[in-house]
Design a protein that fits this description.
alpha/beta, five-stranded parallel sheet, five-stranded antiparallel sheet, 22% strand
Length: 619
């Protein structure tokens, strides 16, 4: 009789982004309880469990019996707890010091709750980067799972990639366990017996050292699927592994990393699962909004790191910043590094206004805590800095109430208008873009989203209905929405000048199909003329550009735009038009503002010449 196939099974337990408090607690009943109980009843089935940091907190608060059950399985060496960054950011997207510290913070939490420290690390979203061995090894983690395709793509393993590999960065070495993605992709989609047939096929070909890893949260928490059916599949898999223990022997992943055949050393390029895409950073170039919030996160991270340095250097000084404020700033920063608002894939991601608002809220809270700790919350300053790393410096206004960013490369428009009292970026808008899946949608097949979604009242801790609608419904809807709302040719920011002809209608503006006769107002990089600070109450910046009006007769004008940001807080924007020709101008100068004030237009108003107009009455 041949040796049994060895299987390192890793189950990732987390909750989908944007669940309201009630749904977070219900996740135990809908998904995790059946899994934990099934494992508890079958001690011969060994697994690795990845418990996302927020899930651990949920279990401690609402389901201590779940914590006790997991602790029991850990104590009998049945379950190995696997580490992960605390809020599971894409590690390649955050500064290395933050990635390492998030892993260490999660490991400390696991040690505190369960009495044991993880030795392996999960890769959030499965995204690999060549720098990660250093990030992971600095957190004293010894191994991580990666998709087998990553190794196949670089030609590793002539006789197969399954086993254990080694890689390093600058001498920081870790082990790699290749995930069998062919079997993983069948999970929940075919009967368990078909999965076992593939196990047997692998064994017959001499591939007897496998790693299987997938998100257990998909078995019970997937919108649009029967949670009971999904739960049954997962428990059937565990039951089958228990019965087939002589044919398939499950082992803990750390035992696999140490005991599987060592396949050699490998160096992997930037890699990601097919639904994420490579490189991950393409999201930053495709979506202006993702790039802006990403660069805001990097700015806040630098501020938190500076606070950390001052806390350490001032250990024996009466002027030392409060270490408790440093811990609070870190907590908000790491929450703001959750990946949901930085990309778009199988989930709504950056298209979900709740997820974007949540990310901005956490980053602004972290920024505010830092300024308080450093006693700079009353500061008035204007500076030029290349925030978005495009080679052109933005103008940044900082007041006790506002953070305002003006980008000369975006028509000298406001790309960030953050209001600290509400911890909200009022220019947290979303540009309408064509997506690859639009081409395959049935034209005009627009479902009744209100009917198909559980609507949830908006507040700081609850999602919009969008997060509860299956992604396929959203995608089908967009075919009809494209005709209804159009697509944007430029990023949706604020204080944008448009020189438009008399034929342009409000519908053209709403759909993004207006013809702009003024070339240069948005397309050119505006010149920064001057910045100044006037006393303690006023900041100013002046920009200018040349615009050519195209029509029957071309005309050239020069636009001057002056921003004044007051302590009050009040923002004043003044635009002057200088006609450089000897003919009358036949155009209309408009200023476009794209703002995110909340979901309820009835609670939002414009005041024009003293007249109060509800947004719900506009357009």
């Amino acid at each position: 009789m041949s040796d049994p196939l060895q299987l390192a099974l890793i189950l990732h337990l987390n909750r989908p982004p944007g669940l309201d408090p009630r749904a977070r607690l219900a996740a135990w009943d809908d998904c995790f309880q059946a899994l934990i109980q099934s494992l508890l009843d079958r001690p011969e089935v060994r697994v690795g469990l990845v418990l996302a940091g927020e899930l651990v907190e949920d279990l401690k608060e609402a389901h201590p019996e779940g914590v006790d059950a997991i602790a029991t399985m850990v104590s009998r060496d049945q379950v190995e707890l696997v580490g992960t960054p605390l809020h599971e950011p894409v590690l390649a997207s955050v500064p290395e010091r933050d990635g390492t510290d998030q892993i260490l913070t999660h490991a400390t939490l696991i040690k505190k709750v369960f009495g044991i420290r993880p030795t392996g690390c999960w890769l959030p979203l499965g995204v690999w980067d060549p720098s990660l061995p250093r990030v992971i090894a600095k957190a004293s983690m010894l191994w991580c799972p990666v998709e087998d395709r990553f190794l196949v793509d670089v030609g590793a393993g002539r006789d197969g990639v399954y086993g254990a590999w080694r890689t390093e960065r600058e001498g920081y070495a870790i082990g790699l366990l290749p995930i069998d993605t062919a079997i993983r992709d069948l999970a929940g989609n075919v009967p368990v017996k078909d999965v076992f047939q593939l196990f047997r096929s692998r064994s017959e070909r001499g591939q007897r050292h496998l790693t299987l890893a997938f998100s257990a949260s998909t078995f019970g928490l997937r919108v649009g699927r029967d949670s009971k059916v999904d739960q049954t599949w997962l428990t059937d898999l565990i039951n089958a592994l228990s019965v087939a223990s002589e044919e398939i022997r499950t082992i803990r992943p750390s035992d696999a990393a140490a005991g599987y055949p060592q396949m050699g050393q490998v160096y992997l390029p930037s890699s990601a699962p097919s639904h994420v895409g490579v490189p991950w950073e393409r999201n930053l170039s495709r979506y202006d909004e993702a790039n802006r919030v990403h660069k805001k996160m990097l700015k806040v991270s630098r501020a938190v790191h500076r606070l950390d340095r001052e806390v350490k250097e001032g250990a024996h000084s009466a002027l030392r910043p409060d270490p408790a404020l440093l811990a609070q700033a870190r907590r908000y920063l790491y929450r703001g590094q959750r990946p949901d608002a930085y990309w778009h894939g199988d989930e709504a991601g950056i298209y979900d206004p709740f997820l974007r608002a949540r990310t901005w809220r956490d980053l602004l809270r972290a920024e505010r805590v830092v300024t308080k700790a450093l006693k700079r919350e009353r500061r008035m300053a204007v500076e030029t800095v290349d925030l978005d790393c495009d080679g052109i410096k933005e103008v940044v206004f900082q007041t006790p109430h506002l953070a305002v960013v003006v980008d000369p490369a975006r028509g000298a428009a406001v790309t960030e208008l953050s209001w600290y009292s509400a911890f909200r970026n009022l220019v947290n808008t979303m540009t309408r873009k064509p997506e690859p899946y639009h081409a395959s949608l049935a034209d005009g097949d627009l479902p009744d989203l209100a009917h198909q979604a559980d609507t949830t009242e908006w507040d700081d801790d609850a999602p919009t209905a969008l997060t509860r609608i299956p992604i396929e419904i959203i995608e089908r809807a967009e075919a009809g929405l494209e005709r209804a709302i159009g697509r944007d040719t430029r990023p949706r920011v604020s204080f944008i000048e448009r020189m438009i002809g008399p034929e342009v209608t409000l519908e053209d503006i709403q759909r993004g199909t207006l013809h702009d006769v003024g070339k240069g107002a948005q397309d050119a990089v505006w010149e920064l003329v001057t910045t100044e600070r006037r006393g303690d109450d006023m900041l100013r910046a002046m920009f200018s550009t040349d615009v050519t009006l195209h029509g029957e007769d071309e005309a050239r004008v020069r636009l001057h735009k002056r921003y004044t940001v007051r302590r009050d807080p009040i923002i004043e924007v003044r635009v002057e038009v200088a006609n450089r020709t000897h003919q009358a101008l036949r155009t209309r100068l408009t200023m476009e503002l794209n703002l995110t004030l909340g979901p309820d237009p009835s609670q939002q108003h414009l005041v024009i010449d003293g007249r109060r107009i509800a947004f719900s009455e506009v357009g």
